[in-house]
Amino acid sequence: MTTALLNNAKQYVDNVFSKLQTKNAHQPEFLQAAEEIFLSLVPVFEQHPEYIKHNILERIVEPDRIVSFRVAWQDDNNDVQVNRGYRVQYNNVIGPYKGGLRFHPTVNESIMKFLAFEQIFKNALTGQSIGGGKGGSDFDPKGKSDAEIMRFCQAFMTELYRYVGPDVDVPAGDIGVGAREVGYLWGQYKRIRGAYEAGVLTGKKPGYGGSLARTEATGYGLIYFVSEMLREANDTILNKKVVVSGSGNVAIYAIEKAQHFGAKVVACSDSSGYIYDAEGIDLKIVKRLKEVEGNRISEYVTYRPKAVFTAGCDGIWTIPCDIALPCATQNEINGEQARTLIANGVKVVAEGANMPSNLEAINEFLDNGVLFGPAKAANAGGVAVSALEMAQNSSRTYWSFQEVDSKLHNIMKSIFTESSEAAKKYGYEGNLVVGSNIAGFVKVANGMLVEGVY
Fold first, then answer.
1. Where do the coiled-coil regions begin and end (predicted)?
2. Span between the terminal Cα atoms of the chain, in Å
3. For residue 224, what are the domain limits?
4. What is the tens place of the pLDDT at every residue in 146-165?
């Protein structure tokens, strides 16, 4: 390609990002997500000037719509509480908007936009017919009774139902929203609509429209992706020492599948701190604490006295390991923590959470030869199985765990292959950040060219 084409591509990307910064100066998480993707796309615009002609980047970075609404609900003391709800419908070129609902006090428009923007490309990578969206509320489920959570979910869906549907927008769970919350949301939607539209929500309980293997999907998919990264490097996960942050669904089932493949997982965490078990995490204890009893991870040491609990989460990345799997929340690994991991010999970092590594950390990993699996590729297993749930709902069929898990495994292999090949095609061989960004973007951009300007 000529220097003129390259300069034109760089100028175009810089101009669009500059406009984006001006419009969204108060939204740091969104700008961080956009910058990470933009940096990957210069070679795409260099080779495809038609994307510049049709201004694809500026069109794709602007959401189709953002819905914000009041959620008023009654607590157990009969006092009225008020929260804010969001749904960001970002892009539906490939299929109906698809993305989770997050109930957490940190939820704001910037976080919703960054998650929805990432979701566009993650969903495109799965090969399923789903577009990108995200939603949630600053409601905090912690400390709330089951009845309070039910009333909040009903109030939330009473506002949201106008904007969702099986062929319009299909929410799912995320932080603070599991099968229980999805069940309450689904029940309210049915009452309002007076119809059984099972495909409007995913993450439902099996037997009630939900798919087997959905709970396990993100964690299992993460390990399938790591296995492909290691296979490409003529290595395996067998006997590798693994550190996992978090102890929710993603972390628990990443630990389960890693152990199944012969790895030794030595640490995991929750918001209070982390546990280190040199003999290997006993997953049965973690599951009992987190899935059955709802206790803090610190209780683990009462069952395993040789394990150590440390308050605070940052120190988990000082534990020497071969594989690091950040599965907790965004921006949990910064440049300093990345350098510590590298100094301690980490070989693979793969993101189970959304944007858990900041740009400085990502660059440290890439510059030092660490195999790095970015979130939009590595944790796409959850939304992939959500799309499989939609397919089952549409056809009134119910697949076995083995069928769904097999499809998930193949999808994760395909995501790795597409990301790897895209990186190679555009001159960044081995860089899965660039590869996954480009592979997802090109699918959506081509769709936008086909349907014309709107």
1. none
2. 31
3. 216-368
4. 999 999 999 999 999 999 99
